[in-house]
Amino acid sequence: MKRDRAEGNRFLSALPEAAFRRIAPRLKPVTLRRGMTLADSGTVAQHIYFPDRGMISLVKTMHDGRTAEVGVVGMEGMAGVGTVLGMARSAFEAVVQVDGYGQRLDVSALQAEIDRSHALKALTLRYMAYRVAQLAQTAACNRLHTLRQRCCRWLLIADDNVQATTFTLTHEFLALMMGVNRPSVSLVAAGLQRKGLVQYRRAAITIIDRPALEEIACECYATLRQEADKVYNP
């Protein structure tokens, strides 16, 4: 079983072996398709999603309909942790931003294992702490860093989680997630393409020069990677 989960979702890979054996039969494979809504804000989540590949955006929608991405879930974790820990309703909308696949689990199944295993409870609380840190970092990033820096950070995160240099992403969807207008994102993408960092054809983006993207990206990319590592290497 360890070999089957070694290269996928980090949270599932870190589960205590006994807990994983009990949970494994209840994990359901799921295809994550761009634009798919996994949870609506204000609703009670019934399932947790563990991406093996792809990206899930946590989106906050204002009363006037404007939206902004406040967090991302990839291979490092799960969507739905708040419900597992007792939040009555989801605070965000969870939307697949980049195609992928993963595992789905009933919330009650993980809750039962957390009650049974101190090690799993500690792991889940560390992951929740990471998510709080991610929210704080994202808020600061949206306020203090340029759109160009933020786009580069997002592209690096996508590269980490998709495990492929080319993936599908429209300017409209990226603009929606970043809370800006489409022309602003298009200008940034065009600039990155002129410099030879990325290649954009239709809705497919290919990362050409990752080290250069890392140079431009804000500090938030490295900071959040370090925070995620602390979950699994305390």
Description of the structure:
The structure is a single chain. This protein has helices spanning 2-5, 10-14, 17-23, 81-84, 107-116, 118-144, 147-162, 171-178, 182-194, 210-216, 220-232; strands at 28-32, 37-39, 47-61, 67-73, 93-106, 166-168, 198-201, 204-207. The chain has eleven helices and eight strands. α7 crosses α10. The strands form two sheets. Strands 1, 2, 3, 4 and 5 form a five-stranded antiparallel beta sheet that branches. It has a three-stranded antiparallel beta sheet with strand order 6-8-7. By secondary structure, it is α+β, with helices and mostly antiparallel strands. It has two domains: 2-142 and 226-232, Jelly Rolls, CATH 2.60.120.10; 144-219, Arc Repressor Mutant, subunit A (Orthogonal Bundle), CATH 1.10.10. The radius of gyration is 18 Å and the shape is globular. 37% of the residues are buried. The model has no long low-confidence stretch (mean pLDDT 89).
